[in-house]
């Protein structure tokens, strides 16, 4: 830990070089996925708001996760009917496979636009201290937008709610 004098000297040195280096520092933090953390440490989180704390590509991946009887080809064709290229979809439609899916790969990854969730196990890679992987991703600023596919009160992937959700995202000009 620094003394008050040492801390004051460090502050002076930082303030002297900061105007010339701030762009480089922000760019490096942004590329490494640490921009939000840097802003938080500086007490400046409010300068970088928005739905996601990082920018994702509008034409990025649409990840669909959760157990369903609806076949991947059927969901992809629904997307195609709505004008969405099937290459944009990443499917994990087996309940057990969803538990092993590594969601951490989506952290601060702008190529992932939205995650559509159906029924998934509560445990999974990257759930941290949260009760479920969905809760972890929803609360974290590191992940893309999350939408739950529901039928009644239950998480369920159906052709209808899948089509409706994609249409909603298109209408919002999100995808």
What does this protein look like?
- The protein has 6 helices and 6 strands.
- The protein is of the alpha/beta class and 175 residues long.
- It is elongated.
- The longest helix is centred in the first third of the chain and has 28 residues, at 4-31.
Q: What kind of sheet is the major sheet?
A: 4 strands, parallel
Overall geometric form? elongated
Number of extended strands? 6
| Gyration radius, in Å | 20 Å
Quick check: average pLDDT? 87
Strand content: 5-15%
Distance between the termini: 48 Å
Helix residue percentage? 40-55%
Structural class: alpha/beta
Low-confidence stretches: none
Number of helices: 6
Mind sketching the topology for me?
Blueprint (H helix, E strand, L loop, with lengths): L3 H28 L3 H7 L19 E5 L6 H10 L7 E4 L2 H6 L11 E6 L15 H7 L5 E4 L1 E2 L2 E2 L3 H13 L4
Parallel strand pairs: 1-2, 1-3, 3-4
Antiparallel strand pairs: 5-6
Helix pairs in contact: 3-6
């Amino acid at each position: 830990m620094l003394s008050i004098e040492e801390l004051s000297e460090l502050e002076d040195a930082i303030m002297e070089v900061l105007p010339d280096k701030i762009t480089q520092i922000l760019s490096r933090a942004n590329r490494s996925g640490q921009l939000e953390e840097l802003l938080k440490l500086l007490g400046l989180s409010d300068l970088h708001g928005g739905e996601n704390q990082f920018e994702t590509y509008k034409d990025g991946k649409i990840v669909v996760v959760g157990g369903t009887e609806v076949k991947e080809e059927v969901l992809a064709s629904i997307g195609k009917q709505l004008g969405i290229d099937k290459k944009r979809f990443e499917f994990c439609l087996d309940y057990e496979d969803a538990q092993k899916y590594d969601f951490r790969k989506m952290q601060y990854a702008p190529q992932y636009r939205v995650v559509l969730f159906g029924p998934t196990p509560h445990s999974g890679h990257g759930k941290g201290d949260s009760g479920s992987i969905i809760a972890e991703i929803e609360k974290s600023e590191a992940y893309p937008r999350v939408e739950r596919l529901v039928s009644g009160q239950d998480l369920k992937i159906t052709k209808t709610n899948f089509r409706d959700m994609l249409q909603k995202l298109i209408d919002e000009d999100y995808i």
